Amino acid sequence: MKIELASSYGFCFGVKRAIRIAEEHKGSKTYGPLIHNKDEINRLKEGFNIGLAESLNDIDADDSVVIRTHGIPKHELAVLNKQNNKVIDATCPYVTTPQQIVEKMSEEGYSIVIFGDKNHPEIKGVVSYAVNPKDAFIVLESDELEDLPLSSKVALVSQTTRKPEDFLKIVNALILTRKEVRVFNTICNATFENQDAAAELAKRADVMIVIGGKHSSNTKQLHSICKRDCEDSYLIENEEELDPSWFEGKKLCGISAGASTPDWVVQNVINKIESMKK
Amino acid sequence: MKIELASSYGFCFGVKRAIRIAEEHKGSKTYGPLIHNKDEINRLKEGFNIGLAESLNDIDADDSVVIRTHGIPKHELAVLNKQNNKVIDATCPYVTTPQQIVEKMSEEGYSIVIFGDKNHPEIKGVVSYAVNPKDAFIVLESDELEDLPLSSKVALVSQTTRKPEDFLKIVNALILTRKEVRVFNTICNATFENQDAAAELAKRADVMIVIGGKHSSNTKQLHSICKRDCEDSYLIENEEELDPSWFEGKKLCGISAGASTPDWVVQNVINKIESMKK
Question: Which residues make up the binding site for dimethylallyl diphosphate (chains A, B) (predicted)?
Fold first, then answer.
């Protein structure tokens, strides 16, 4: 039996980069968890002495602070700088972009519309860059636009993890009612890359292993996508759940992993499957 | 029987303005017909000595030239200026806007996409304002975008008379594939104002008279819209086609007119209906 990894799986570019940055700064603290995976947080703690600050109160004056992929609000960054903390910026470049756009467009007098969840850390960071907070609005549905005091010139950005088709609904509602809408497509397609790669592999594989949290929505989605083309698709959290009977008589075993699954967990699964073949 | 005019009918703002400008410049020539209505062209000829130049060759060095609502290409304007013609600009302000946008966005390095008909005089004028003609494209369908060498920053304008829902198809196709799309909604809603006003009136009237060319698509559309709510809706070109039997026992006669129908034709129809009531 051949084992093949999906061409895209697991951590996205930004998370991989943030973990590498943290590893390069032993003894620092991350402001908020770098990733929703306790095993990976523990690995960074044990191997690199990376601490975790849940709030600004947990950060002491001499701490080196890693900003995670989501970024942080401008005023919190100002607090860290004022405290003379060493700030290590691991904000995903795909998140830095909408922050910079909001700042620039706001300076140029555009009303700002942000398509996203106002409670999400990424969005709290992005909106903080508007120079005129009263002229920046966060919406999730197009009907929320109706009552907003927007000017005739609007700049629009999206939370990086939103679906393009939902973004277009906001775009369309704005365009029919405003003179100029400056649309910045800041959606990151990492989520869809993993899904597309898993679907492609599932079409060829006769057994698929999807690795990730049983309660992770993106992992469950990967699993259901694989099921469509490969009935023998299994969702597991780690190698201990593997069952040798799954691989009997199979020719191609495909592997995919959710966005919070570290590579070493994936590697452990592959090693265990290899050993079962013997 | 009461007679009521639709709240919006006939010539749009830009055409009314262009005719007023022509009347204020007796003895001038229009470059291209001001409107697709021979009676109105004749009235301007007889009452104000307004001539008609079908091409630049018909324009002599000492002519005063009225630019019609569609505007003209930049290089033709340069020819008129070089010949020392007196140029009287009756370009509709709603058309001047996309011309200026294309010039400015093109100077700022945006690829230009114009949603419209490349053979329409308005579009020939608008596209001529791109400082880099190789980076300006005219499309009518979203699939035409696929093969265009557009940069990651695109500015989009529309022919003023296009339908908003068709414009959105172009917008949506661009947004999913470009970093920034600067959308300028340059659609003029005059056409829809006449339609909305006719529909509203047809709901209350028990006979509707729609005045306009039998082959004019916008007049035929007005007629069919009226028919939906008022079965006794008639399309006529002038007062001579009126039939007294249409008004027998009616309480409210609604009137609308196509975009190329002069007000004096409408007034002649109203006068004739008034006389029939007696």
Answer: 36, 70, 120, 216-218, 260
